[in-house]
Amino acid sequence: MSQANRGVVYMGPGKVEVQSIPFPELALGKRKCQHGVILKVMTTNICGSDQHMVRGRTTAPEGLVLGHEITGEVIECGRDVEFIKVGDIVSVPFNIACGRCRNCKEGRTGICLNVNPSRPGAAYGYVDMGGWVGGQTEYVMAPYADFNLLKFPDREQAIEKIQDLTLLSDIFPTGYHGCVTAGVGPGSTVYIAGAGPVGLAAAVSAQLLGAACVIVGDMIPERLEQARSFGCETLDLRQDTPMADMLEPILGEREVDAAVDAVGFEARCHGHDHSHEQPAAVLNACMDVTRAGGQIGIPGLYVTEDPGAESKAAKHGNLSMRLGLGWAKSHSFHTGQCPVMKYHRQLMQAILFDKVRIADAVNVEVISLDDAPRGYADFDGGAAKKFVLDPHGSVTA
């Protein structure tokens, strides 16, 4: 099979272009990939992690085809694919996992040992994550299909709920993972740092897990308004008021049971001087406002190399973290990529049975593939939206 294909390509800091790219093949280098499938991409989303690369805050090479949040229709299967069929509509976890290594067998699919020669773990269209072609495209190849792909049980229902289901490839499981690793449960009080799409997905996840009060902090008023739209309390972090002082009127106390860092390494100072970057600001704030013995989930991205950092230490991922405070309060920290397959089937069920409206919570806006540069620019400007690309016009149709 050979035909036209187009994708969103990183062209250097601040610039992406939609270009013609090769049509995918069932191949890994010079050998056949008989365990893979080729997908016609139905939806593919712009992620905050993509934005880090486009801002020039990673070592991503120019020419990288972007995109790791993929939902698609199977149009070709390799010889060894047994359970996924042509015509299936599937969610593609952003983690690429072999299903055979020790970590995969333990459910740690975010750190598969066989899909990236440089380090554990791989992802589509992402720097240092194995060189896999991204999915902000019309067509893409997905390997290890039987293991990786989540098939939606009913085609018509999947199309009807595609704006929710598209979020299963990354941000919904990632937000949920942040809450699970922070120990969120029935009756919890929870602080979510960041009201971008992952932060909002974490806030919805905390509600789904039974939290009594979910508090979201951010510096962008429109994003805070979006958090309030589904029942969250909010903290405007442009204020100089200490966070504990802002929590007290909401909770009657100055600490929460659990905290989630959905910001990551481009964090800024809390208060009027929020133009200044302080990469460990969120981690330190979470320790400050989390009760002794509490847990902190860290789905926000931290990198080993940040060429755009303000300090020499931060350029290499070295942060001024108050670990002594966390030690004194017996905090537990959980970092790293979300193992999407650990959660995506359960979260799919929550969507299909109308237990959660994740697309409304993160304010999905569907745009065309050609409109991707505008989506990146608006997202970089702090838009309170989750941009979903519709490469074939199938969603809008």
TrEMBL record:
User: Is Hydrolase found in the keyword set?
Assistant: no
Q: Where is the Alcohol dehydrogenase-like N-terminal domain?
A: 35-152
| Residues in Alanine dehydrogenase/pyridine nucleotide transhydrogenase NAD(H)-binding domain copies | 182-239
MF (Gene Ontology): oxidoreductase activity; zinc ion binding
Name the PROSITE patterns on file: ADH_ZINC (PS00059)
Look up keyword rRNA processing and say if it applies: no
Q: Which UniProt keywords apply?
A: Metal-binding, NAD, Oxidoreductase, Zinc
- Which protein family is named in the record? Belongs to the zinc-containing alcohol dehydrogenase family.
Q: What's this protein's name?
A: Glutathione-independent formaldehyde dehydrogenase
Query: To which species is this protein native?
Result: Halomonas daqiaonensis
